[in-house]
Amino acid sequence: MTRAEIRRQSRENEKKMAVYTLTAEQIEKIKRDCTSKGIEAAFMLMLSLPLLVLHDKFGFGNKRLTQFITELDRLRDCTNEDRLSLKDIVDEVYRSTGIKLEGRLNGRKLEL
Q1: Does the model's pTM come out above 0.70?
Q2: At the N or C end, where does the chain have fewer CB atoms within 10 A?
Q3: Closest CA to 46 of 64, 68, 61
């Protein structure tokens, strides 16, 4: 391959690579959108798992599962509005049931 062919191929490769210029605001919007999508996906997973367990292992039907979802949405709204924190929830679970949620993240401690 001659030098001219190498340069031509190099220029063609450069043309194929698109370069975009984004403002800081656009980058922040992309970050917010991605974060929001990630949170929504995580919430859907963490909603689906208990629904399957409640249905398959404890016989919950549509009515009780719908009630469960409604209450979960209510509590999620409270956390989104900063009326309820994760620490509040964990403390209440322990106070009312005696179940400690610490150490349930693959051995990692969650700072609340």
Answers
A1: no
A2: N
A3: 68
